[in-house]
Amino acid sequence: MPRTRKMILSFYCDDTSPYTAGAKAFQAFLDFCAEHRITGESSVILGAGSHSMSRSPNKEEQAFLQQVKRAWDCGIDSHMELMTHRGLFDFDANRETKDAVHEGLWLHEPNATVEQYERYFLKIITEANRAGIRLTGLTWPGCGCETCKKRYAALRADGHTEPNPAFWKALLSLAKQGKFRSRTLPCFFGASETKFGIHQKAADGPCAVFDLMPNAKDHFGSYTNKTDRVNADYYLSADGKSGVIARHFAADAPYCIWYSHWQGLNPAKGIGWRAFTTVIERIQQHLRDHVVWMRPSDITNRYHAGGGWSFLDAMG
Questions:
Q1: How confident is residue 1, by pLDDT bands cut at 50, 70 and 90?
Q2: Strands (E), 125-268
Q3: Mutual orientation of helices 23-36 and 59-71 as an angle, nearest 10°?
Q4: Whole-model pTM over 0.90
């Protein structure tokens, strides 16, 4: 039986910064998204350069921040990928704390409190606001260093397999205070092609926090920016009949969301940029009338307001 409603398309891009490819590359990416009316999310890591780029930014950082400010108007959400994607940040000293626990791991530490998470997140939001940027959610900054791998293994052995619930509560508190752009927050933690879904982690009235799981992998070069990690056909074949997008469409999935990394996706140096534009061309050729592009924050806003995916029924 053919599906009776459209499928949502969206994506998110990790590790976005001015240091990988420069501000003009991010401008080109936003221009492409706006021109082709595709929507998604691109992370903001304000402390990626070991200082807050919103304080006395250099010329390249300032140019990048100007582009992040226009991202929303180009259809792109701006999530915090926390502050450094490495160790916890010392906001008073404006530097990464020496030998500090890595931020992604910290979100799993069972002894961290709601208050600690809320204070740290609020400081990141303040740095973003300083640059005129409003954040829309949070992307987990994963880490594969030996210290983090050993600690993750120890946490799993003790039964701590999920992020600390206190961190979800902290995000909800900030959403209720109006600190984010919208009242619902999409977060990206889990991912699976087959066991995916949208999972409410905390809610109070019109405000809610969700883990919105991507159900397509990164074959746009990933963070290694290598050709063996590029495959446009993985997403959608030239004839539009196969690929993960076609499979989810045929299975009547409510969405297909993929993740990517700026190292491979960026238009200046990214080995996966041409594959990305090819996939968009194929979607427009074969699925234009059967899909709807949505930012992650729009997905969670509509899902929460409607109590499920019923809002898709009105879209055909």
A1: very low
A2: 138-139, 184-188, 198-204, 207-212, 255-261
A3: 20
A4: yes
